[in-house]
Automatic annotation (TrEMBL), chains A, B:
This is TetR/AcrR family transcriptional regulator. Residues 221-231 have a biased composition (Gly residues). It comes from Streptomyces pratens. Residues 35-54 bind DNA. Residues 12-72 form the HTH tetR-type domain. Keywords: DNA-binding, Transcription, Transcription regulation. Residues 206-232 are annotated as: Disordered. SUPFAM superfamilies: Homeodomain-like.
């Protein structure tokens, strides 16, 4: 990124530099305000080269949306661990999501704010990504429900609604975390676990969900948080880490 | 509404007819596609009269956003009952929200889809309304937490995050309910109560939250649902209605 410029640089590398600069500019200054001049300058290339590679401001923006959407979906999928118990799976997935949105605030702003605000063509790109994530979450919840249930308490229509609620809550919390000073990825994950897993009922009665011990080195949840997290403790996928129980709140 | 036309009709009444027609047209056909011609025709007035009253398509759209936002916020505030126990309060508020969005799908589409997709000026109108609702929900949760707690387990920063999660989940579920055939306001409310109050943990263990008996005539939750709801049973604000417990799922 930045003012690197070399005639020998391969096209793919240079294109990624342009996209890096574009995501940063669109995310921080907004799609309408951002100019191709400043994007080219930030990428360290000439404006004609940006047009040559990406064609137009609209196409450049769509390329940004697609790249950021792909990265987010991959991060969430990589975070999920089907071998874990359901609550640990959810915790791992949420942590992956909030860690990614915290590390890429401009990418998240492009996806969740800019792309949805500037016309239906851009919004449709994000809608497609969102549908992918809802489907993925629905499958996770269905698998967890099948595992947990002696009898089929949760029909698939209900699970689809729960997945929508979970994704909607996660989106709102990512916006909130990225715009509220001092809120870390871990805190956002914990808030949503308390909300979605323990539920407000248990939460208000002083019974929050607690993250497992020693998983900071495991999921990357410790980004910027580090409060009360045992660093360096090894975790395994076998779910060997013991839950801290529901007796003490973790923030 | 419709093709009513009278020279003696007061301006305020006629303006509401124009707004009715505009909300319907913007909500169903989208802001870009909707034409002032069809809005005037649907309102039963001439196009010049629409411009005379509402000035421009942009101003007409902003007037629609403001009217629908005000109606939604009022419906949610009217639905909340501070004298009830916390779970009943939440149930009443959610039921009011989903009943309103189910009864006014075009208004909801204007607020949550159209207004946010067509530029920052419109999006800012919705952001202001959303902030109102988040503040209101935060206050409700803080009051409930204060009531429930012997010790202060829920600091206000955590409650702000929970309010964001709840509002985000409700928005996503309203979209889902309005676009999924057969999903009623009561079902959407129940899904969110299960998600947010009971929590996925209890839910997967077969312990959903159950709505109180006999509140259909109380909150209007029975709109289009009516499954297993005692009709005509009187409810009181004193919370006399007995919870059905957490042993059987309600859908």
């Amino acid at each position: 990124m930045g003012a690197v410029k070399s005639k020998r640089m391969p096209r793919a590398v240079r294109e990624q530099q342009m996209l890096d600069a574009a995501v940063q500019t669109f995310g921080q200054r907004g799609y309408m305000t951002a100019s191709m001049d400043e994007i080219a300058e930030l990428a360290g290339v000439s404006k004609p080269l940006v047009y040559l590679y990406l064609n137009s401001k609209e196409d450049l923006f769509i390329a940004c949306i697609r790249r950021e959407a792909k990265a987010l979906v991959e991060a969430v999928r990589a975070g999920a661990r089907p071998v874990l118990p359901a609550d640990r799976q959810l915790w791992a997935g949420l942590t992956a999501f909030f860690t990614h949105t915290a590390r890429h605030p401009d990418g998240w702003a492009v996806l969740h704010l800019q792309a949805r605000t500037h016309g239906e063509v851009f919004a449709a790109e994000v809608t497609a990504m969102r549908a992918d994530i809802v489907t993925f979450v629905t499958e996770l919840l269905l698998a967890a429900a099948r595992e947990a249930h002696r009898d089929p308490h949760l029909p698939s229509g209900e699970v689809a609604g729960l997945a929508e609620a979970l994704v909607g809550a996660a989106e709102a919390l990512a916006d909130w975390a990225n715009s509220t000073p001092g809120v870390t990825a871990r805190q956002a994950s914990t808030t949503l676990m308390n909300f979605a897993w323990a539920g407000l009922g248990d939460l208000m009665a002083g019974r929050p969900w607690s993250p497992p011990d020693g998983e900071a080195s495991d999921t990357g949840a410790g980004v910027g948080a580090g409060v009360g997290v045992g660093v360096g403790a090894e975790d395994t996928d076998a779910g060997a880490a013991v839950h801290a129980g529901r007796t003490s709140p973790v923030r």
